[in-house]
Amino acid sequence: MDAITTAKKAAGEKAASLVHPGMLVGLGTGSTAYWAIKKIGEMVKEGLNIQAVATSLASEKQARELGIPITSFSEIQQLDIDIDGADEVSEDLQIIKGGGGSLLREKIVALASRKRIIVADERKYVKTLGKFPLPLEIVPFGWELVFKTLQTLQGVPTLRTKDDQPYITDNGNYIIDCSFGVIKDPVQLHQQLKMITGIVETGLFLNLQPTVIIAYENGEIKAI
Ligand SMILES: O=C[C@H](O)[C@H](O)[C@H](O)COP(=O)(O)O
Fold it and tell me: Known catalytic residue: 106?
């Protein structure tokens, strides 16, 4: 296992140790959250009694295969803890997510959770957001108009593709990845983008007061 994968595993397992009996747990998406779900699966096999809501079909599949009981918002209203990855975390704990295309479900789950744990390797921890192009979930109809509007906001948009076709999210939408350079005011940018009809959600996860677990390649783990 390479050093970055080892760091992701360490962050994921550290976060899993915060899951206690009886909790309702949000399961994140991506290659770091994967390790948390894997560890929680082991804990469930050893008798841990929890229920979980997954932030993507992929994570739900992983959880079901591990025997983690899955519930939904038709059964529950709030989660005790949400463990998820990030694409960028700034020093003031603002976050960009959505590199894996799951930002909408991830945000719904994060907002429904009392405690939010973000797991990331050291490469994700930055001074200010913006190097990672901001993922935006958009409805397919008229996506070209959203694309052009983003250009008028000095954004550099790219329609995400997979096998030369538009990438389709678990919700049947498209993703535009849009660079805005250094994001000086993420709250203002998020509000501006949410005003554009056709944008369903942005990958800016702001003011959520997360606990961020950062794993370093040298084996060190810091919780911020
Ligand atoms: O849509 C995907 C999510 O926001 C992921 O949590 C994020 O992209 C980080 O993924 P990874 O841990 O694979 O870098």
Answer: yes
